[in-house]
Amino acid sequence: MTTHAGRYAFRIGPTGMLGALGLLLLLFVAVAGPVIWGADASHLNVAAAQQGPSAQHLLGTDSLGRDMFARVMSGARLSLVLAVLATALGSAAGVLLGAFPTVLGRRGRRAWESVMNTAIAFPALLLALCVATVAGVGAKGAVWALGIASAPNFARLTYTLASSVSGSDYVLAARILGVSRPRLMLRHVLPNIAEPLIVTTTLQVGGMLIALSGLSFIGLGVQPPSYDWGRLLNENLNRIYTAPAAALAPGVAIVIAGLVFTALGESATALVRADAPPARLGRFGGAPRPTAAPRPQAGPAGQKPAMPTADAGAYALRVHDLSVVFPGPVGPVHTVRGVTLDVRRGERVGIVGESGSGKTLTAMAIAGLVPEPGRVTAARMEIAGRDPGTLRAPERRRLLGSMTAVVFQDPLSSFNPALKMGRQLTEASEVHLGLPHAQAIRLAQDRLHQVRVPSPALRMAQYPHELSGGMRQRAMIAMGLMGEPELIIADEPTTALDVTVQEQIVRLLGQINQDTNAAVLMISHDISVVTSLCHRVVVMYAGHIVEDIDVASLLAGPAHPYTQALLASVPHMGSDRNQPLATIPGRPPQPLELPGGCAFAPRCPFASDTCRSRQPPLQARDGRRVACWHPRPPRAADPTDTTTTTAGPA
């Protein structure tokens, strides 16, 4: 049997077919058994007691002359109902216990882990026996006992799955938006781990059926006059040698039912694995990584707006001496070191550098999205003139969630794959602006139209994987515009897009900057993309700013050797195809391997003993800031160099 889900297909094998047929048979027996065989199962006939199999009694009779076949068929309902109830109790408690700690703080998670580790270390069977004794002998006590005993292991599984989701970009963004913890858990965490939990629950029913039958067999489960398969096994086991059919029939029923649920669970596992790709791949497949930088444009209106001057208004962002520290095996690891950056309203600033330079962590620290156990410190941190650290929690969430927009690098992983686009776009305006749902939908459609997404109503009814890479990135920008952003942080928004879509996204950010006067802080490893959009470029290396320079001066000639090397490594139309591409020798230092002097000294052709022994300060020099003991003089612009003639602020 083949079933299609979009572009993907999965096949239900023989095991799945047998499991499905077995489940139908069990459901029929559970529903119809007491109706069809109930009278024979309860009819007493002492004269026919303990008879062997016959045409009248297929499995013989018990000590009171009741038909064993009828009792096995009638006992199916109680056996299956109790197994499902115990599984539901254990899984529900386990899901709640396992998912909620993922939205707690670091201390809350540690406390939960200690309690759960202790509970898991306690033998489940012993725990079930203790609870059954306390709760009381009987079906109710058995269900509670097995439900409570199975909850810790289910909680551990849920916690492991939820932990892989809780660090996702969309969960971090929802926290900053101020989404409540129950809503965060129910909307953003649980839907994304539902499939493996359902599979595990299906498998658990078979095990729970066997466990419940075991409790009934030893006298702690179902009590007379009620009976389940375990009780029937207990009553007839002493006849194993004289009437084996009557003694073994309840056990065979238990084994068959357990195998049915195991087959269903295994088949469900295969279905989940086969159906997984739609949640991870775009509708048109993964977009190829660009091989060349997009050709810079003059801007949406064909003109290059002037960079805001010092008296153009208040600052959108002021950060002084920003540091990000993570605990390491031999001490703290300083991934961002003393970053000072001011961005005026309406200004577009780019942060460039190699992988591991700290540019993304700097942006995430500004947005309040540095994951635990990272620690952010700053002598000064202001967004739109307000310090997030001095605000109450609701005001801080509004500042970071509404007045700060973050455009993540990979929108497919940044959007919640289990929610439609409309639900995700409207969340910010509903939480912070207090808009009714209908008005939030209209605002979301307007924002999608603003970022040039065709058919906004249709797109809002789709899931993230149904949109192309360019549309997802536009939708991510639209989500940032759902509030009232003073600062837009774009974390490599063009990395996974082809050059044509790259150009569209860059022009779109420039247009939004002109329309809203929101400052743009763009992070990229591609210096040519940054120079096509930004007024100013900040170059980072090893967690430290090495140069802060306006685009015109950058193209005329940067002062820091690292900036020069980055600029030289960008191919342009005048590059000699017979020569290999320019590269920077060596590799960036790891945070635990930072030298005592300039971090770039081991790779710098101009390094001296002073560079290797002393860290250069970031000082103003010729209209720029540069951290170098031997800054290079600016060169004159070469009219034949297309790098200098085509690149410029959008």
Can I get a quick summary?
The chain is an alpha/beta fold and 650 residues long. Helices cover 48% and strands 13% of the residues.
Please describe what this structure looks like.
With 650 residues, the chain is an alpha/beta fold. It folds into 3 domains: 228 residues, MetI-like fold (Orthogonal Bundle); 267 residues, Rossmann fold, CATH 3.40.50; 76 residues, no CATH class. Helices cover 48% and strands 13% of the residues. It has 23 helices and 14 strands. The chain has an 8-stranded mixed sheet, sandwiched between helices. Strands 3, 4, 6 and 7 form a 4-stranded antiparallel sheet that branches. Strand 11 and strand 12 form a beta hairpin. The protein is elongated. The N terminus and C terminus are likely disordered.
